[in-house]
Amino acid sequence: MLKVKENVIRAIISHAEKELPYEACGYLAAEAGLVGHHYEMTNTDKAADHFSMDPQEQFAAVKDIRNRGLTLCGVYHSHPETPARPSIEDIRLAYDPDLSYVIISLAGKEPIVKSFLIKGGEVSPEALEILKEEGI
Amino acid sequence: MQITINGEDQQLDDARLTIAQLLQVKDVESPDMVSVQLNGEIVDRSRYDATEISDNDHVEFLYFMGGGTFA
Question: Is A16 on the interface with B (CB under 8 A)?
Answer without folding.
Answer: no
